[in-house]
Structures are given as C-alpha cells and as structure tokens.
Amino acid sequence: DAGVTQSPTHLIKTRGQQVTLRCSPKSGHDTVSWYQQALGQGPQFIFQYYEEEERQRGNFPDRFSGHQFPNYSSELNVNALLLGDSALYLCASSGPRTGTYEQYFGPGTRLTVT
Amino acid sequence: DAKTTQPTSMDCAEGRAANLPCNHSTISGNEYVYWYRQIHSQGPQYIIHGLKNNETNEMASLIITEDRKSSTLILPHATLRDTAVYYCIVRTSNDYKLSFGAGTTVTVRA
Fold first, then answer.
1. Which of A59, A74, A101, B102 fits a disulfide with A32 by CB distance 3.0 to 4.6 angstroms?
2. Partner residue opposite B96 with nearest CB, options A4, A56, A105
C-alpha cells in the first residue's frame, strides 16, 4: 500500500518564476492538505482540498494556489517566486476512515529559490 | 498564536521512558490534544490524540491532566529511532488544519 507520494523531490527555481508541485494521496484517502516548512520551523498550513474544492486556507498570499483532481491527487502552484518561498513543501492526506484527526504526510518537495 | 508550550529540547537514554510535557492552559472544551513527530528528512507522523481521557496505542501513551491544561506524551522504551522533533497540537474536530509550533527536539542517546 503506497503512502503519500510527492514529486519532484527537489527543485531549484529563480525569483519570479512559477512552480508546480504534485501529490498523490494514500490509497483510500480523499482529502489533501499542503504545508510549507521553512528551515528550523514547524510546518505551516497552506490549504486543504476536498471534493476538488479548497475547503480551508491558511495565511498565505494568492500567489499560492492549488487544485485537486477527480482521482484525489493534487497540485500546489506558486507564482512569482520569492527567495522566502524556499522551503520544504509537505503534502498530507486523510480519508473517511481516519477522519480529519490523522493526516499522513509525504516526504516533501525541497524548493530552493535563487 | 501559540496554543501550546513545549521545551525546546530534551535528552533521553535508550531503553528508558521518555516523558514529553506540553502546556495548553487556554485549551477549550472541544479541543483535542494531538501529538506528531518528525524524524529528520521525513514528513511528520501522527502519534496519538485525546480529549480528556488518557490514551494508549502501540507507539505511546498520552496523559492529560484533569483540568486539561497540560499533557505528557510517554514513549515507554525509547530507541535511537525515536530521535525526532515532537509536536504537541491542540485543535477542534472541525478544524481541518494542524497548527505546528516549534516542537521539542528529542535526542535518544545510547
């Protein structure tokens, strides 16, 4: 049973560029959340997708957007990259059996903005 | 706004119990206490959660004080693989996000 998978593992972008990160939830899960983790800090909630809609959003600018597909996979898009967007981006999934209390996290995508 | 307070770091001897404290003095009646941990270079991992009763699973035990203002996560027999950052989080059942603080860096020493 595959867990949460994310791609790519690492990537390097230049300021002003746009980036798309991808996430496949754990089998049986229908809800995907995205988090940003700066070096030395705890993860910060970006948003959550359920039934292809953004259900809850954290304190992030509109440059951060997302999408959920019918197969429950999700994308995180970040436009007009800033140096401060350099971080580990984590995807977490949950489902009907786990409810909202247990979120399964993927290994993350390390984004470096130069 | 931080809802929990945890020590920055703590050490534990391998094979001994590790007791991780967490203060949540402003917790509301409908807020649960959750514990996650993050091993280096991995995503966070769910450990346990509780409302007011003590809870135990295969990973750990959660002891919540009667006034619910603090709790302790107990790893009964710490191993080197338990070295991680441990996060104590409070949230209601209808709040979809997890609000992570800085956590406690636990180092298990041989």
1. A74
2. A56
